[in-house]
Amino acid sequence: MTKLLLRFLVVTAGALIMAVNLNTFVYTAGLLPGGFTGISLLLQEVIQKFLHIRIPFALFYWGLNIVPAVICFQYVGRRFTILSIWAIIASGLFTDLIPGFQMTSDVMLCTIFGGIVNGFAISLCLLAGATSGGTDFISIYVSEKTGRSIWNHIFIFNVVILIIFGLIFGWQRALYSIIFQFAGTQILNSLYKRYQKSTLLIISDKTDELIQIIREVTGHDATLFTGKGCYQGAERKMIYTVVSSDEEDKLLRSIKKADPFAFVNILQTKMLKGNFIMKRQD
Fold it and tell me: What is the pLDDT of residue 259?
Protein backbone atom coordinates (compact mmCIF):
# COMPACT_ATOMS: atom_id res chain seq x y z
CA MET A 1 0.00 0.00 0.00
CA THR A 2 2.86 2.38 0.87
CA LYS A 3 4.55 1.64 -2.45
CA LEU A 4 1.32 2.32 -4.36
CA LEU A 5 0.87 5.64 -2.52
CA LEU A 6 4.45 6.62 -3.37
CA ARG A 7 3.82 5.79 -7.04
CA PHE A 8 0.65 7.90 -6.95
CA LEU A 9 2.52 10.89 -5.48
CA VAL A 10 5.37 10.63 -8.00
CA VAL A 11 2.91 10.43 -10.91
CA THR A 12 1.07 13.47 -9.55
CA ALA A 13 4.36 15.36 -9.31
CA GLY A 14 5.16 14.41 -12.91
CA ALA A 15 1.74 15.63 -14.10
CA LEU A 16 2.19 18.90 -12.19
CA ILE A 17 5.65 19.53 -13.67
CA MET A 18 4.31 18.77 -17.14
CA ALA A 19 1.47 21.27 -16.73
CA VAL A 20 3.78 24.01 -15.40
CA ASN A 21 6.12 23.36 -18.32
CA LEU A 22 3.27 23.78 -20.80
CA ASN A 23 2.14 27.03 -19.18
CA THR A 24 5.65 28.51 -19.10
CA PHE A 25 8.18 27.36 -21.69
CA VAL A 26 5.81 25.81 -24.25
CA TYR A 27 3.24 28.63 -24.40
CA THR A 28 5.90 31.36 -24.23
CA ALA A 29 7.80 29.99 -27.24
CA GLY A 30 4.66 28.90 -29.11
CA LEU A 31 5.97 25.32 -29.25
CA LEU A 32 4.02 22.29 -30.37
CA PRO A 33 4.99 19.24 -28.31
CA GLY A 34 4.68 15.91 -30.04
CA GLY A 35 2.05 13.29 -29.42
CA PHE A 36 -1.43 13.91 -28.08
CA THR A 37 -0.29 16.92 -26.07
CA GLY A 38 0.71 18.69 -29.26
CA ILE A 39 -2.45 17.65 -31.07
CA SER A 40 -4.55 18.92 -28.16
CA LEU A 41 -2.76 22.28 -28.15
CA LEU A 42 -3.10 22.53 -31.93
CA LEU A 43 -6.84 21.81 -31.86
CA GLN A 44 -7.28 24.30 -29.02
CA GLU A 45 -5.37 26.97 -30.99
CA VAL A 46 -7.18 26.38 -34.30
CA ILE A 47 -10.66 26.51 -32.74
CA GLN A 48 -9.80 29.62 -30.77
CA LYS A 49 -8.32 31.33 -33.83
CA PHE A 50 -11.12 30.60 -36.31
CA LEU A 51 -14.18 30.15 -34.08
CA HIS A 52 -13.12 32.42 -31.20
CA ILE A 53 -14.03 29.71 -28.71
CA ARG A 54 -11.59 28.58 -26.05
CA ILE A 55 -12.14 24.93 -25.24
CA PRO A 56 -10.21 23.59 -22.21
CA PHE A 57 -7.03 21.68 -23.03
CA ALA A 58 -8.15 18.81 -20.80
CA LEU A 59 -11.17 17.91 -22.97
CA PHE A 60 -9.03 17.32 -26.06
CA TYR A 61 -6.30 15.55 -24.10
CA TRP A 62 -8.67 13.22 -22.27
CA GLY A 63 -10.63 12.37 -25.39
CA LEU A 64 -7.57 11.45 -27.44
CA ASN A 65 -6.27 9.11 -24.71
CA ILE A 66 -9.35 6.92 -24.33
CA VAL A 67 -8.46 4.29 -26.95
CA PRO A 68 -4.75 3.90 -25.98
CA ALA A 69 -5.79 3.59 -22.32
CA VAL A 70 -8.18 0.74 -23.11
CA ILE A 71 -5.49 -1.11 -25.09
CA CYS A 72 -2.93 -0.75 -22.29
CA PHE A 73 -5.48 -1.88 -19.70
CA GLN A 74 -5.86 -5.15 -21.58
CA TYR A 75 -2.26 -5.83 -22.58
CA VAL A 76 0.13 -3.98 -20.23
CA GLY A 77 -1.34 -3.92 -16.73
CA ARG A 78 -4.26 -2.64 -14.69
CA ARG A 79 -2.42 -0.61 -12.04
CA PHE A 80 -0.14 0.78 -14.72
CA THR A 81 -3.15 1.95 -16.75
CA ILE A 82 -5.06 3.32 -13.73
CA LEU A 83 -2.04 5.38 -12.64
CA SER A 84 -1.59 6.53 -16.24
CA ILE A 85 -5.23 7.63 -16.41
CA TRP A 86 -4.69 9.62 -13.23
CA ALA A 87 -1.60 11.24 -14.80
CA ILE A 88 -3.70 12.20 -17.84
CA ILE A 89 -6.55 13.59 -15.71
CA ALA A 90 -4.17 15.46 -13.39
CA SER A 91 -2.02 16.98 -16.14
CA GLY A 92 -5.13 18.12 -18.02
CA LEU A 93 -6.62 19.74 -14.92
CA PHE A 94 -3.35 21.33 -13.83
CA THR A 95 -2.78 22.75 -17.32
CA ASP A 96 -6.17 24.47 -17.32
CA LEU A 97 -6.06 25.61 -13.69
CA ILE A 98 -2.46 26.80 -13.29
CA PRO A 99 -2.04 30.34 -14.69
CA GLY A 100 0.59 30.77 -17.36
CA PHE A 101 3.62 32.94 -16.72
CA GLN A 102 6.75 33.91 -18.62
CA MET A 103 10.06 32.76 -17.13
CA THR A 104 12.11 33.99 -20.08
CA SER A 105 11.31 35.50 -23.47
CA ASP A 106 14.25 33.78 -25.19
CA VAL A 107 12.72 31.22 -27.56
CA MET A 108 15.80 28.99 -27.70
CA LEU A 109 16.05 28.83 -23.90
CA CYS A 110 12.36 27.94 -23.71
CA THR A 111 12.86 25.27 -26.36
CA ILE A 112 15.85 23.56 -24.74
CA PHE A 113 14.80 23.80 -21.10
CA GLY A 114 11.19 23.05 -21.98
CA GLY A 115 12.31 19.84 -23.67
CA ILE A 116 14.50 18.89 -20.70
CA VAL A 117 11.71 19.53 -18.19
CA ASN A 118 9.19 17.65 -20.36
CA GLY A 119 11.50 14.63 -20.61
CA PHE A 120 12.06 14.71 -16.85
CA ALA A 121 8.32 14.88 -16.12
CA ILE A 122 7.55 11.95 -18.43
CA SER A 123 10.44 9.98 -16.88
CA LEU A 124 8.99 10.53 -13.40
CA CYS A 125 5.71 8.97 -14.50
CA LEU A 126 7.47 6.06 -16.21
CA LEU A 127 9.74 5.37 -13.23
CA ALA A 128 6.63 5.26 -11.01
CA GLY A 129 5.07 2.64 -13.30
CA ALA A 130 2.76 4.86 -15.34
CA THR A 131 2.81 7.03 -18.44
CA SER A 132 1.82 10.59 -19.23
CA GLY A 133 -0.52 9.29 -21.95
CA GLY A 134 -0.65 9.73 -25.70
CA THR A 135 2.18 8.22 -27.71
CA ASP A 136 3.78 7.09 -24.43
CA PHE A 137 0.99 4.49 -24.22
CA ILE A 138 1.97 3.28 -27.69
CA SER A 139 5.67 3.26 -26.78
CA ILE A 140 5.12 1.16 -23.66
CA TYR A 141 2.79 -1.27 -25.44
CA VAL A 142 5.25 -1.89 -28.28
CA SER A 143 8.24 -2.05 -25.90
CA GLU A 144 6.48 -4.59 -23.67
CA LYS A 145 5.81 -6.75 -26.74
CA THR A 146 9.29 -6.43 -28.26
CA GLY A 147 11.47 -5.80 -25.20
CA ARG A 148 13.10 -2.85 -26.99
CA SER A 149 12.91 0.88 -26.39
CA ILE A 150 11.24 2.79 -29.24
CA TRP A 151 11.56 6.37 -27.93
CA ASN A 152 13.72 7.31 -30.92
CA HIS A 153 11.08 5.91 -33.28
CA ILE A 154 8.42 8.00 -31.54
CA PHE A 155 10.71 11.01 -31.95
CA ILE A 156 10.90 10.38 -35.71
CA PHE A 157 7.10 10.06 -35.86
CA ASN A 158 6.72 13.39 -34.04
CA VAL A 159 9.23 15.02 -36.40
CA VAL A 160 7.12 13.92 -39.37
CA ILE A 161 4.01 15.44 -37.74
CA LEU A 162 5.90 18.68 -37.05
CA ILE A 163 7.14 18.87 -40.65
CA ILE A 164 3.52 18.68 -41.81
CA PHE A 165 2.69 21.36 -39.23
CA GLY A 166 5.55 23.48 -40.61
CA LEU A 167 4.26 23.19 -44.17
CA ILE A 168 0.85 24.45 -43.07
CA PHE A 169 1.55 26.99 -40.34
CA GLY A 170 5.17 28.07 -40.89
CA TRP A 171 8.61 26.62 -40.24
CA GLN A 172 9.93 28.58 -37.27
CA ARG A 173 7.61 27.09 -34.65
CA ALA A 174 7.94 23.64 -36.20
CA LEU A 175 11.75 23.67 -36.18
CA TYR A 176 11.92 24.92 -32.59
CA SER A 177 9.43 22.20 -31.65
CA ILE A 178 11.69 19.54 -33.20
CA ILE A 179 14.56 20.75 -30.98
CA PHE A 180 12.15 20.58 -28.01
CA GLN A 181 11.32 16.97 -28.91
CA PHE A 182 14.97 16.02 -29.34
CA ALA A 183 15.94 17.40 -25.91
CA GLY A 184 13.05 15.56 -24.24
CA THR A 185 13.88 12.26 -25.98
CA GLN A 186 17.51 12.41 -24.82
CA ILE A 187 16.40 12.90 -21.21
CA LEU A 188 14.01 9.94 -21.54
CA ASN A 189 16.73 7.68 -22.94
CA SER A 190 19.05 8.70 -20.10
CA LEU A 191 16.64 8.32 -17.18
CA TYR A 192 14.31 5.49 -18.18
CA LYS A 193 16.25 2.29 -18.83
CA ARG A 194 13.67 -0.46 -18.46
CA TYR A 195 14.07 -1.61 -22.07
CA GLN A 196 17.84 -1.25 -22.18
CA LYS A 197 19.87 -4.36 -21.35
CA SER A 198 23.14 -4.87 -19.48
CA THR A 199 25.38 -7.95 -19.54
CA LEU A 200 27.13 -8.82 -16.27
CA LEU A 201 30.25 -10.98 -16.08
CA ILE A 202 30.91 -11.83 -12.43
CA ILE A 203 33.97 -13.67 -11.11
CA SER A 204 33.46 -14.83 -7.53
CA ASP A 205 34.06 -17.64 -5.06
CA LYS A 206 30.42 -17.40 -3.94
CA THR A 207 28.73 -18.18 -7.22
CA ASP A 208 25.82 -20.20 -5.78
CA GLU A 209 24.87 -17.36 -3.46
CA LEU A 210 25.19 -14.74 -6.22
CA ILE A 211 23.07 -16.75 -8.66
CA GLN A 212 20.33 -16.88 -6.05
CA ILE A 213 20.60 -13.09 -5.59
CA ILE A 214 20.28 -12.57 -9.35
CA ARG A 215 17.10 -14.66 -9.37
CA GLU A 216 15.59 -12.80 -6.41
CA VAL A 217 16.47 -9.26 -7.55
CA THR A 218 15.79 -9.52 -11.28
CA GLY A 219 13.77 -12.68 -11.89
CA HIS A 220 16.39 -13.75 -14.46
CA ASP A 221 18.74 -16.71 -14.35
CA ALA A 222 22.43 -17.02 -15.18
CA THR A 223 25.02 -19.27 -16.78
CA LEU A 224 28.05 -20.50 -14.85
CA PHE A 225 31.44 -20.92 -16.54
CA THR A 226 34.51 -22.58 -15.06
CA GLY A 227 37.93 -21.38 -16.12
CA LYS A 228 41.50 -20.85 -15.00
CA GLY A 229 42.89 -17.63 -13.57
CA CYS A 230 46.06 -16.81 -15.51
CA TYR A 231 47.76 -14.89 -12.67
CA GLN A 232 47.58 -17.54 -9.94
CA GLY A 233 46.71 -20.53 -12.09
CA ALA A 234 43.75 -21.31 -9.82
CA GLU A 235 40.34 -22.51 -10.95
CA ARG A 236 37.86 -19.64 -11.18
CA LYS A 237 34.12 -19.46 -11.76
CA MET A 238 32.35 -16.78 -13.77
CA ILE A 239 28.62 -15.96 -13.86
CA TYR A 240 27.11 -14.64 -17.09
CA THR A 241 23.72 -12.93 -16.96
CA VAL A 242 21.69 -10.28 -18.82
CA VAL A 243 19.38 -7.92 -16.92
CA SER A 244 17.39 -4.76 -17.58
CA SER A 245 19.58 -1.71 -17.08
CA ASP A 246 17.20 -0.25 -14.48
CA GLU A 247 17.92 -3.30 -12.28
CA GLU A 248 21.66 -2.93 -12.64
CA ASP A 249 22.42 -0.69 -9.64
CA LYS A 250 20.24 -2.63 -7.20
CA LEU A 251 21.76 -5.93 -8.33
CA LEU A 252 25.31 -4.59 -8.09
CA ARG A 253 24.74 -3.40 -4.51
CA SER A 254 23.39 -6.83 -3.53
CA ILE A 255 26.34 -8.60 -5.17
CA LYS A 256 28.89 -6.38 -3.41
CA LYS A 257 27.12 -6.92 -0.10
CA ALA A 258 27.24 -10.71 -0.50
CA ASP A 259 30.80 -10.78 -1.86
CA PRO A 260 32.86 -7.56 -1.49
CA PHE A 261 35.68 -9.17 -3.49
CA ALA A 262 33.57 -10.09 -6.51
CA PHE A 263 34.95 -8.86 -9.84
CA VAL A 264 32.07 -7.50 -11.94
CA ASN A 265 32.27 -6.35 -15.56
CA ILE A 266 29.14 -4.60 -16.87
CA LEU A 267 28.62 -4.31 -20.63
CA GLN A 268 25.90 -2.47 -22.49
CA THR A 269 23.91 -4.94 -24.58
CA LYS A 270 23.06 -3.45 -27.96
CA MET A 271 20.90 -6.30 -29.21
CA LEU A 272 19.46 -9.41 -27.61
CA LYS A 273 17.72 -12.33 -29.28
CA GLY A 274 16.24 -15.17 -27.31
CA ASN A 275 13.93 -15.73 -24.38
CA PHE A 276 14.31 -12.65 -22.17
CA ILE A 277 11.28 -12.40 -19.87
CA MET A 278 10.53 -9.02 -18.29
CA LYS A 279 8.51 -8.35 -15.16
CA ARG A 280 5.05 -6.96 -15.83
CA GLN A 281 4.56 -3.24 -15.24
CA ASP A 282 2.21 -3.92 -12.32
Answer: 92
